Amino acid sequence: MKRALQQFAIRSAMKNEKRAAEVLAEAAAAGYEGIEICGFLTRKIPLIVRGFAAMAGMPIGACCKLDWHRLISDSGLAVVSVHEDLGTISSKPDFVAGEAESFGTDTVVITGMFKFDYGDASAVERLADDLNAAGRLMKDRGMRLLYHNHNCELCRTDRGRAFDIIIERTDPELVNFEFDSYWIAEAGADPRVWMDRLGRRMKLWHINDRGFRAAGKTASIRKSDGMELGFGNMPLAEMAAKAASFGTEAAVLENHANWIDDDPVRSMLVSAAFMNENIK
């Protein structure tokens, strides 16, 4: 497996071209081999989208203004995949495939649906059919399509869980998965069970730990959040071995909040120790 990081996780550190180059160089020196990029962070986006992201506590910063082709090429990191939305893939397949190819990857990932009812079995079945259609569009252009889960896929419907419907109704020749183990754990399920469920359809793995930090006086119940790898409570070493047994191609670090010292770059570097020891 490649050791990779998600562009979104370090977005707030990308103040300008010089700093972005420094951060990517630090990542490569720490042992990361790849990067997963978000299409919307590599091109200009409407101001309203930037505003919504900021209001959600995830400001985009200067990312959209940077020359990501040059930055990534100079860093030596390989692009393992590009995140895009289903609407853009379906309406502009040539554009999406061309963008992915320009970054040297054949993998496009859909990161779930916005304002979508995962508790509606009919809607989820239609989503699976739409994923198959998008997968065909990508395959016809030399690309492959992966679906990235969050916690909402574990909603129960009158025909089973949404994730089961998506897995069973999508064609493995057209759609496979980037499995996010953090969100499955956040939903109260065992990620190892779902890794086994996906098996070799788990092409990429979003890795994060989950726990909480000591901060002054504490109550008896605390809110958990993402953590640096090895500092939370997830069985990550066991999961890494399982992912390797399935032929998963890359483990992609994604911790986009709750960083140590509120510093995404330091967080990435702390997690590198676990990545270097366990992701091979």
What's the gist of this structure?
With 280 residues, the chain is an alpha/beta fold.
What does this structure look like?
The protein has 280 residues and is α/β, with parallel strands linked by helices. The protein has eleven helices and twelve strands. It has helices at 17-30, 47-55, 68-75, 86-91, 93-102, 121-139, 162-169, 181-186, 191-198, 236-245, 264-278, and strands at 2-6, 34-38, 78-84, 107-110, 144-148, 156-157, 160-161, 175-180, 202-207, 209-211, 225-227, 250-253. The protein has an eight-stranded parallel barrel, surrounded by five helices. Strands 6-7 form a two-stranded antiparallel ribbon. Helix 6 (121-139) links the parallel strand 4 and strand 5 (144-148). Helix 1 (17-30) packs parallel to helix 3, helix 1 packs parallel to helix 11 (264-278) and helix 6 packs parallel to helix 7. The longest helix is centred in the middle third of the chain and has 19 residues, at 121-139. It is globular. The mean pLDDT is 94.
